[in-house]
Design a protein that fits this description.
419 residues, alpha/beta, Rossmann fold, Beta-Lactamase, 13 strands
Length: 419
């Protein structure tokens, strides 16, 4: 499961931030927790209609939207929550509504014995208000008093009983999220423009996307670097040649289509595309997605739209499936992963394709284990039709069914092997 933790203070030193950081470290095997700060969120002003479009607001909105649940750590100021937290919640309930039907847990730390009890009561009322409509976890009130003495110098809660109680509250929240997720109706999916007719900031409009020489022509238009020219990355400095070598050495077939549904990259140019698990050819680079999947019948094109649409609107962060009918020595796995811009909005789709069987065989050999219940390749569709608790995906069969429909009978231009 993926949770976000909202630090309810904009102060540089906050015991509620320390509390969330402790939760992230201590319970990392139970869920992923990403901290969200409110210090850059503007003070809510109803007359300023552009506030919802500011980077910090959009960032919080997108992060909450895609999270399975939210943990809010609130201080207590004058028997209530901080003005900064109240303002953030106003912005998350005015024109944007990411908390609607979202499971929320409240925790809090304060200097005094009562441990934010009044602030938590107030916060529950706010979260229940029209426009917010969050599903707040009942009971399970974690009130950390005397916060100055509660943590050691590494930010860990000292009292073991307190840690155990916190764990029990979090376990109940995990169960609560599971129940709410099963009842929650996914957001509707808008029709996808697979013709890439809505250019984005990085679209190269001078070249027809379906031109078979798009890569060479588009590269000249933008004066693209190549060879031994260095590129500064987030966490590294590599030449273009090194980046290409790095990507080609990946034990996966990788592809990328941007949020304009233009197919822009794949990493393995096989001499014989028939040997690929997801067949690609150089002339496809730059193509519209409608061209890449052009030979599919209309019903299957709807499935392509569903996968992209469900990643775009945040219902799921990935769709994963196994191609049915593969030979016994192949477990052909396709993973469609959403990618995001710095503000958290949808940036495109990364498809990862690989044969899982060698990895599985190696693991079983190294650990001395074996599969029970038959061959892995004989796994029924129902076995992978449900996402597990850590997937961040809805527990429905729609994801696997739609993804399988894309890859099961795709031809040479579709991006998947024939069976």
């Amino acid at each position: 499961m993926k949770f976000v933790g909202i630090v309810g203070s904009n102060a540089e030193q906050s015991y509620n931030r320390i509390l969330l950081e402790f939760i992230r470290r201590q319970f990392k095997t139970k869920f992923d927790l990403e901290l969200l700060e409110i210090k850059d969120i503007p003070m809510f002003n109803q007359d300023d209609t552009n506030q919802s479009n500011e980077f910090a607001v959009q960032y919080m909105y997108n992060k909450i939207t895609r999270a399975d649940g939210v943990i809010i750590a609130t201080p207590e100021h004058n028997h209530t929550i901080t003005p900064a937290l109240k303002s953030a919640l106003e912005l998350m309930s005015f024109s944007l509504h990411p908390l609607e039907n979202k499971p929320v847990m409240i925790v809090g730390a304060s200097y005094y014995d009562q441990g934010t009890s009044r602030a938590q009561v107030h916060l529950r009322k706010i979260l229940d208000a029209p426009g917010v409509n969050a599903y707040t976890l009942p009971g399970n009130e974690f009130l950390l008093g005397k916060a100055k003495e509660a943590f050691d110098d590494k930010g860990n809660i000292i009292n073991e009983g307190t840690v155990k109680f916190l764990e029990s509250c979090l376990d109940n929240f995990i169960k609560y999220v599971g129940v709410v997720s099963a009842l929650k109706k996914p957001k509707s999916i808008m029709p996808e423009d697979l013709d890439a007719s809505k250019p984005i900031a990085t679209t190269i409009t001078e070249i027809d996307p379906d031109d078979p020489d798009w890569l060479e022509k588009a590269s000249k238009v933008v004066n693209a670097v190549e060879g031994d020219t260095y590129v500064k990355l987030d966490n590294g400095l590599l030449t273009v040649d090194q980046i290409n070598m790095f990507l080609k050495a990946m034990p996966f077939e990788l592809t990328f289509a941007d949020d304009n549904n233009q197919f822009l990259y794949y990493n393995n140019a096989h001499q014989d595309p028939e040997t690929m698990y997801a067949k690609r050819v150089p002339a496809q680079v730059g193509n519209r997605m409608s061209t890449v999947h052009g030979s599919l019948p209309p019903k299957r094109m709807k499935n392509v739209e569903w996968v992209i649409g469900t990643l775009r609107n945040g219902n799921q962060e990935y769709v994963r499936t196994i191609v049915p009918g593969s030979p016994a020595e192949i477990i052909n796995t396709h993973n469609y992963q959403a990618m995001y811009y710095p503000d958290g909005s949808y940036a495109g789709i990364n498809e990862i394709v690989f044969n899982f069987k060698p990895w599985l065989d190696w693991y079983l050999k190294e650990t001395g284990q074996h599969l029970a219940g038959g061959k892995a390749s004989a796994m029924p569709a129902a076995a992978h039709a449900h996402a597990d608790a850590s997937s961040g995906a809805s527990d429905t069969g729609d994801a696997a069914a739609a993804a399988e429909a894309i890859v099961a009978e795709a031809d040479a231009n579709s991006g998947a092997s024939e069976n």
